[in-house]
Batch of 2 targets.
Target 1
Amino acid sequence: MKRIDAIIRPNCLEAVKDGLVSIGVEGMTVAEVRGFGRQKGHTEVFRGTEYSVDFLPKIMVTVLAADDRVASILEAIAQGARTGKMGDGKIFVTPIDEVVRIRNGEHGDAAI
Amino acid sequence: MTEKVVRRRELRIVRVASLLIALFIVGICGSAQTGFAQSPKPDPAGIATGDRTSVTDAAGNPFVVAEPTDKTAPDYAAAKQSYDDYVAQAAKEPLATKLADGVGHLRIGTNFAWTLNTGYLVLFMQCGFALLTCGLVRKKNAAHLMMLNFAAYVFAFLAYYAVGYAFQFGAMAVNAAPANIGGTPTLNHFLIGSGSWGWLGGKGFFLAGPAYDAGSNVLTLFEVVFMETAGYIIVGAICERITFWAFLLCELFIGAFLYPVFGCWVWGGGWMSQLGSSWHLGHGYVDFAGSTVVHAVGGFCAMALAVILGPRLGKYGKDGKPRAFPAHNIVYVVTGTFILLFGWMGFNPGSTLGATDLRISVVAVNTNLAAVAGSAVAMLLWYALFGKPDITMACNGMLAGLVAITAPCAFVSPTSAVIIGVLAGALVCGGVLFFERVAKIDDPCGAISVHGLCGWLGAVSLGIFADGTYGSGWNGVGTASYLGHAGQGVTGLLHGDSRQFLVQLGGATLCAVWAFGATFVVFSVVNKIKPIRVTAEAEERGLDVPEFGMVAYPEDALVTVDY
């Protein structure tokens, strides 16, 4: 089992969600996050004084997947989130030990 | 609960109770004034205010001809003749004079309604100021900001009720009787000074006795909301770092002393308003609706407090360069500014104290024109300087235009109003940059630039642009003719009265010195006794929780709630 965390542009969320749903992903968790990568922040002026916006708003989408489905999910996310410009985001894949469905106590792949 | 906590709480209760008792006793003393014989008699029921003496034609000429008293006057014979004619005519037509009593009462009633309703508009400005200042600060101080705005209204009002009103208007009838609302004849005594040199009013403490009068209470309602405006202007410059107790002290100081004293000099028939008759300086110091009396007093008081408090933590880096603390809610800022514009439609036109003064339409148009001109300049200037127009500066520009037109609004043409707005819009931009970068006085909402500098500019611009079409007989000057013309009103430099310009320049500058100086002295002493600034820990955390134990927004609430 794998946990897939994708950090994407906020305006790409709709496309990513639709892509994932279309390949049969049944659930996901979304969080509003902030950060920067190679694109860095930018400076703005407030009442004549410059300030830098270092941390840009992003969305983190978390999906759990059985090992054999990981490749297609990564493909779907990348397709929905890619603009080709700096700041498109990253996807992290990490192994997980256990998943439990709280409602009925199901374990493992059945609980995804 | 530990014993110590209980004892501390008991002590606090005792302290609050003794304060309330003291207030109660003072109140009793105040209302005891009612016992003395009053001359003339106050009219609390409003059934004797407004009779045939209040009836005038459109130009303000009275229906009732007064009996001339000065037998040595050159026009005595003519005046006596017209008085005798009136008496003879009145004796022949008793029904007409009776009808005139009704007309006079109706006229005063119309003006009561106008003045009270415009006063309610000014009261609504409180809401605009609260939104504007709250939106401009950081989220962690939002609840503190709202409480400051709220408490300002409460405590300054009580101070003004107790002594402020009497200090400001206690001698109104001596030199500046407001004929539009019945003349408030009972307010006729200076506590300090007399005649043309009044320094402090002396009747109407606790709104008792002479001030327990229908006409006087119209003035009270209208003027208390003006005082409140000065009271919450200061919030914009001192927020995010002042303790609540010190702020309450500021409000009591403004409501009881700082504002009423200068207000007495200019609006209460005091010495500055009489400089026209005493020293032949134009029409005396003229400030129609309070560019200086209200705004510059608030602005320069705020400046003194901001200097004493020092800048917010982290505002200036180690290199001395300012850092931006962006506004947390632009929607509040813009909404608040529009509410202020709306309220200003009461502030300026209402200052005629009467709907029967038809100049109100010109006043309303001028006020709007200066507002949009100021905003346009601030927007475009920022566009040119920094590449993007700053929304908060566009709002400040609108307020700058409004503040500046407040003094001259009744005396200038629409085009002059636009020019005054343009000047104010440019001045506020320069002021904000100057205080932020050069003077390093931290003013989160631009209160010093908007209200202080542009208030000063407003009073001075009256001395430049006043065109003489309105204000004939203002402050008792030039009732028959002025500058050789019958009906010539308040006139500025460009229209031939340089002395009016001089008195405006001097008076506006005196206002700045008074408000800054008095505040600086008093609160430097207070600050020595007990620091008026919050602790560094509280400031870093945001003042909402350290000062009030709660935050502004539910998503930041301290406790978990059930959905």
Target 2
Amino acid sequence: MNLFRSEEHIVRWLGTRANGATIPVTKLCELAYAWWGDRIDPNWQPHTRQQNQAILNGLGLTDQFWSLSATVPNT
Amino acid sequence: MDEGDVALRNLTYGLFVELGRAPTVDDTSTAIGATPDDVWAGWQRLHDDHALVLQSHTRELRMANPFSAVPTAYRVFADDRWWYANCAWDAFGVCAALHVDGRIEASCADCGEPIKVQVRDEQPDDVTLLFHCVVPAALWWDDIVST
């Protein structure tokens, strides 16, 4: 999960690796605030997979790449 | 995750922020009034529940996401301290978790050129950067350290 200067840098870095997903840093920042904003709340409660999926979906990250399918909560 | 483990998790995260580093088993056992073995057993359950990540060969924390217990390529200055984040996402997550502005210092994974991003009012000041994730979401926890 890395930062890059441009799409050209991503393509070069990937080389023969399978492509993943690219989002703008502005979207990443939104995602970080939605995902991590409660992490040091003293009353934090575990997130369910559905809650985490809703965060991704709410930011438009709806394709298969962003689908959580683990059987335990992704806290 | 039962209430006792949630309390242990929340205390562990609180200690991480208070100390500015990962708490040890002893730090945590003293703070919670439990034995070190009880803390370690609780941390192992929390690791299995993906609530934190333990080192594979020592009785230490590896991650209290988004914070990293070990040095990484993603440094964040926030709340008057430097922190290590586990990845680019977590670097922004440190600012998000602390609810403060901050400065992320990293580098382009391709060319190594330094990247400095100021986060102010939940917005990055350099909007040209891109984030790339190789591992699909469903597989993140298969190997969270590599992810």
